[in-house]
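From: lab user (bench 3)
To: helpdesk
Subject: output format question, protein + adenosine-5'-diphosphate

Hello, I'm new to running complex predictions and I'm not sure whether the block I got back is the full result or only part of it. Here's what I submitted:
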Amino acid sequence: MSGQGESGAILTLNAGSSSIKLAIFDVAEDGALKARRRGELREDGAGQRFRLKDAQGGLLADEAWAETRFEASLDHLLARIDAELAGRHLAGIGHRVVHGGAGHRMPEEVTPELLELLGDLAELAPLHVPHNLAPIREIARTRPGIRQVVCFDTAFHRTMPAVATRFALPREFERRGIRRYGFHGLSYEYVSRRLAMLSPRVHGGRVIAAHLGNGASMCALKGGESLDTTMGFTALDGLVMGTRCGALDPGALLHLMRWEGLSIDDTERLLYTRAGLLGLSGISNDMRVLLESAEPVAAEAVDVFVHRIVREAGALASVLGGLDGFVFTAGIGENAPEIRERVCERLGWLGVRLDRAANADGAPVISTPDSGVEVRVIATDEEAMIAEHVRDLPIA
Ligand code: ADP
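Helpdesk reply: Thanks, we reran it on our side. This is the complete output you should expect:
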């Protein structure tokens, strides 16, 4: 603990297949959270690359680490974080876990029993959950005194009614967990809380939030709670993404496997890593590259991306019974005015009126005063949401 009115710090870790994103938040005595450091450890050739930024985004470190073993790089990372804490007490580590299944719908403190249960859930999201759990297990083993909290990306969607979570399959499959869960929950929860502060009237009404990043989904919010969302059993469903296909006729899968001879592993790679904007364009999964490209295929990929957003927005507005607000967030939603403009123009029938100048300037509100739908851009912060959960979860 420092003597400067700080009562401690919270670390957040978001471990994916090839990177660990981290953030350190200072917790003031009144509970206010302030991001102090944000960073990333990413696979880079045979080793790792560690980057760390201060609260203003200034680069503090950009280092090549030689470690190849996960345990060694995590240990190095934790030692580096210890140094960054500058003597502050670490009140806990919050982790993003992509899938909590049907049974885990709230943030929870990590116990050996919980880790075992979550390990069993890994088959629901084999490409994500094992990576999410690896640092939790390692920290529990090497630093058992540290409080760890898991936050599930599916949890925010616990308010979805059964009619939105059910597949039209025989009911025994639902009992075995084959149902729609929804993802990007930490992002939607953050956006919903921000909207409650920025625009309480709209927050209390019918809102579509569009998380458009490398992964992309949309959520129908009523009174700030999830009513429906475009992702389902896995994070493959719904919108076109950087490298993921989005909604696909299941019959196409059967055809690919039966007639094109794709194995299960080939199919998984195709759907997760070779599809989406990358597959459509053959150029890149990166929206910036596609928007700057003069190739017709790049424009076609963007056309499909926008078409799917518009199509799903109509469906979600219909589920909501109308629309009071629309929020853009994540990399593309926050930074690509051209995409926002194209989506808003096509949603004119719902009462959306875009203020083109405000949109081009990246203003917080990009609809005109007479628009029937208030359109906002809200920068998401999943790390801040995780830190809030660590702060607010009563200590077991
Ligand atoms: P992740 O899901 O990996 O967190 P992000 O939310 O960072 O992804 O979003 C990454 C996407 O945002 C990429 O497609 C990137 O091209 C896009 N993006 C970032 N900045 C811009 C920009 N200025 N214009 C258009 N697209 C952008």
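A quick orientation on your result: The chain has a mean pLDDT of 94. Let us know if anything else is unclear.
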